[in-house]
Amino acid sequence: MNPHLSQLHPYPFEKLVTLKQGITPPADKAHIALSIGEPKHATPHFIQEALLRHLHGLTQYPTTKGLPELRQAIADWTCRRFGIPTGGVDAETQVLPVNGTREALFSLVQAVVDPADKPVVIMPNPFYQIYEGAALLAGAEPYYLNTVEVDGYLPDFDSVPEAIWQRCQLIFICSPGNPTGTVLTQSDHLKLLALADKYDFVIASDECYTELYDDEAHPPQGLLQSAYQAGITDFKRCVIFQSLSKRSNAPGLRSGFVAGDAEVLKQYFKYRTYHGCPMPVPTQHASIAAWNDEEHVNLNRQLYRDKFSAFIEILQDVCEISRPPASFYIWLKTPIDDAEFAKQLFAQQNITVLPGSYLSRDSGGINPGANHVRIALVAPIEECVEAAQRIKAFLNENKP
């Protein structure tokens, strides 16, 4: 067996099952799940209909590169969304459709990393655990870049030692962040682009939450947007990951894309032809419909805004809680150990949240996820309001 498999940590939700084992929550309270970032809003009918209209496509083997119409729809959306001139993203050489960002985040690392060179993969801490698993299985050493409150829960690139940058082959950034909802600015991107140019590493920007933001006048900045504005029109060393899971409430569609540096994508495409992961043709047509429509995304954002407003209003007088600029997560500080908080909240109120320490690693003498829980406001607003009321009661009854 691959010896690197032994280095993999249990997935956060496996730990959560163990944490809750043997606990019987109150029977008079319906369970409310706020632990998994799985959108519960309805998938728009026009996406479903596009899928059904093209079921005849199941008789075809799909190609790894995908339909030209899909790549063009993705390229056009990327240009519209990130202020890049039409044609600034080449659908032929700078776009690849993928079966959701999870498989792409993992597989890109396998294509990019050279294990013979003592590679390092830098990632934010806390993080999406795929980053770590991808690095370990590629034979790289993960470097955990703490995102802590004093820095606004943003990565401090200046804190990374020179020796780490010299060995870095790829860095993951996640903006808007999971679990914090914080957003990297153009100046953050420019600093990282300069570092990538100096030390020659790939920037892998996980942007699957960019379409869920609070301020309609200030959508989150994308990496390709920053690169283009800085004159890096070939997106050298830049790769972004986007998905329809959050944007279009279609996590089961397993549809997203990778875009950016044509040279990186050329080699990644070669890898994917062996990886065996082309997107089914009906899924591609449903994806074209989704990328070509913004009305449903605007409505989706408003649903999350309403939930954030209602949830925070209920809790703001009993705990320190802030509204993130983007994503659908509340990164809540806990008055006690985060795992104990989650355990007792389930036992007393039948609500499941995710301990922050399950999303991070000890680094530099701290675990930056400790004493936080991630709350995913994915349930209907009525359930989110009920959950907030129960959490308020829990906090009032369990004051340290």
Automatic annotation (TrEMBL):
The EC code for this enzyme is 2.6.1.17
User: Which keywords describe this protein according to UniProt?
Assistant: Aminotransferase, Transferase
List required co-factors: pyridoxal 5'-phosphate
Top class in the EC scheme: transferase
Extract the GO molecular function terms from the UniProt entry: succinyldiaminopimelate transaminase activity
Ranges for domain Aminotransferase class I/classII large come to: 32-391
Cell membrane as a keyword of this entry, yes or no, is no
Q: Which domain of life is it from?
A: Bacteria
Q: Which InterPro entries match?
A: Aminotransferase_I/II_large, DapC_beta/gammaproteobac, LL-DAP_aminotransferase, PyrdxlP-dep_Trfase, PyrdxlP-dep_Trfase_major, PyrdxlP-dep_Trfase_small
Name of this protein = Succinyldiaminopimelate transaminase
According to its UniProt entry, this protein's organism is Methylomonas defluvii
Supply the source organism's classification. Answer: Bacteria, Pseudomonadati, Pseudomonadota, Gammaproteobacteria, Methylococcales
Q: Which gene encodes it?
A: dapC
